[in-house]
Design goal:
Blueprint: H1 2-10, H2 21-25, E1 38-41, E2 47-52, E3 58-62, E4 67-71, E5 77-81, E6 87-92, E7 98-102, E8 107-111, E9 117-121, E10 127-132, E11 138-142, E12 147-151, E13 157-161, E14 167-172, E15 178-182, E16 187-190, E17 196-199, E18 206-212, E19 218-222, E20 228-231, E21 237-241, E22 247-252, E23 258-263, E24 268-273
Antiparallel strand pairs: 1-24, 2-3, 3-4, 4-5, 6-7, 7-8, 8-9, 10-11, 11-12, 12-13, 14-15, 15-16, 16-17, 18-19, 19-20, 20-21, 22-23, 23-24
Protein name: NHL repeat-containing protein
Keywords: Signal
InterPro entries: 6-blade_b-propeller_TolB-like, Vgb, WD40/YVTN_repeat-like_dom_sf
């Protein structure tokens, strides 16, 4: 899949810190034996962005199928939205609004919980991962301009971080820093004072999947490899799960006990326990 990714980049397909040291580092014993991922669902077509709503429904953006699927708490899968162009990043706002990035059309859509769609913002440049910052602003990993942008309620765009290496995912940490995954190489940790640490040397190619627990532990998928890794405050990382086929999506479950990762290579969603 590494070769597939690089050809995708050439064709404009998916191209698609930091808190204090204690939330980042954690007990090192948890990393001695990486978890074996538990298979939950398969049959997805290049799944990327994932998010849970307040009712426990899981929404999955399927790049290859041009749709968003919804899995209810009982495991029943339905199509939430379709006829989309390159859906990549997906996040859900506090009021239940679902936001989906169209990588191919340089737009972000917003959906009501019932599925009504509107264009939320245009004029982007291959938007990949989406998330919300601590103040409630929508953040967009704008791959082609090497920026993280924020979106105002009126749809205006404002640069938040620049000078990145083809960013595809971002989270804001509890101390108002950021962690960014760059498909062009590495993970950027941006501290609140503006200092940067370029991390992720152990990654093949970091993907859009960046997830953070409530206590500030940050995890990133290795799309060019087979692992999910925890990012440490010194710029290193530790494997928490391995043996995956190009993991690309990542989300923390509502109970905070597990990570779900979606794999590009076999269209499957797996569960991984969050290390203590």
């Amino acid at each position: 899949m590494m070769n597939a990714l690089r050809s995708s980049l050439a064709a404009r397909a998916l191209a698609l810190a930091v808190v204090s040291a204690s939330p980042f580092v954690g007990p090192t014993a948890a990393f001695e034996n990486p978890a074996t991922p538990e298979k939950l669902w398969d049959g997805f077509s290049s799944p990327v962005g994932m998010a849970f709503d307040a009712k426990g429904n899981l929404f999955v953006a399927e790049w290859g199928a041009g749709r968003v699927s919804r899995i209810d708490p009982a495991g029943k899968r339905t199509t939430f939205a379709d006829v989309l162009s390159g859906p990549s990043g997906l996040t859900i706002g506090p009021n239940g609004t679902i936001y989906v990035a169209s990588y191919s059309r340089d737009e972000v859509y917003r959906f009501t919980p019932s599925g009504e769609r509107r264009v939320h913002v245009t004029g982007l440049a291959t938007p990949a991962g989406l998330s919300f910052d601590r103040s409630g602003r929508l953040l967009v990993a704008n791959r082609r301009t090497n920026q993280i942008l924020s979106v105002s309620r009126s749809g205006g765009l404002e640069p938040v971080i620049g000078g990145l290496r083809t960013p595809v995912g971002v989270v804001q940490t509890p101390d108002n820093g950021y962690v960014v995954s760059n498909i062009g190489g590495g993970v950027t940790i941006l501290r609140p004072d503006g200092a940067r640490i370029e991390a992720g040397e152990e990654f093949g190619t970091p993907g859009p999947g960046v997830a953070m627990t409530k206590d500030g532990r940050v995890f990133v998928v290795d799309y060019g490899g087979t692992t999910v890794r925890k990012i440490l405050s010194d710029g290193q990382s530790r494997i928490v799960a391995e043996g995956l086929r190009s993991p690309v999506g990542l989300v923390v479950t509502p109970d905070g006990a597990s990570l779900l990762t979606a794999t590009w290579g076999d269209g499957t969603i797996y569960r991984i326990p969050v290390p203590d």
